[in-house]
Amino acid sequence: MASIDKKIIFISHHPSKNTKILSNAVLNVIKSNELKINIEIYSPLEITSDQVRQSNGIIIGTIENFGYMAGATKDFFDRCYNDLLDRTQGLPVFYYVRAGLDGEGCERALNKIIQGLKWRQVLNPLIFKGNWTDDFIQLLSDASLNFAIGIEEGIY
After folding, report:
1. pLDDT tens digit string along 28-77?
2. Which of 32, 109, 147, 152 has the fewest CB neighbours in a 10 Å radius?
3. How far apart are CA 130 and CA 19, in angstroms?
């Protein structure tokens, strides 16, 4: 068995059946590919800045609420932003949004926060808009595997 060299923190807000499916897709694709990556999943309400600082990369999964990120995701940034500022510069990040509307407000807010923290957004965010489609699962799986391999190989 390969030794675990690197760690990805996955902050996942998944309040519905479909968002839980997306969350599971991220975990399953990374765990099933025998990468030298440890992935740890946390609720945005439970994650701490210490846990983020001890990671090699971060995946964020959130929903859009009222044209903005979920309150739980915002809570994470409200609690941890100042402690992460200037201490996690360059941290590779990838995020996805399950949007009921267009996802633009959520994407804009997350991009500003990521820019303020000086994290490296290494993949374009995935914004899953409108009615549910099973294509979301494959798109997210592919992007998550890309991210994990990039972390493992030191590309990101």
Report:
1. 999 999 899 999 999 999 999 999 999 999 999 999 988 899 999 999 99
2. 32
3. 13
Structure tokens at 72: 């739980």
Which overall architecture, per CATH, does domain 6-149 show?
3-Layer(aba) Sandwich (3.40)
26 and 59 in contact (C-beta within 8 Å)?
A: yes
For residue 58 the two structure tokens come to 């971060």
**Long-range contact list for 68-74, CB < 8 A, 24+ apart?**
68/105, 68/106, 68/109, 69/97, 69/106, 69/109, 69/110, 70/13, 70/15, 70/44, 72/13, 72/43, 72/44, 72/45, 73/11, 73/13, 73/44
In the chain, where are the structural domains located?
6-149
Query: In 5-70, which residue ranges form alpha helices assigned H by DSSP?
Result: 17-31, 49-53
Q: Which two tokens stand for residue 17?
A: 């059946």
| Phi, psi angle pair for 44, to nearest 5° | -65, -20
pTM attached to this predicted model = 0.95
Q: Quote the Cα angle for 129-95-25, to 5°.
A: 80
DSSP state of 62: E
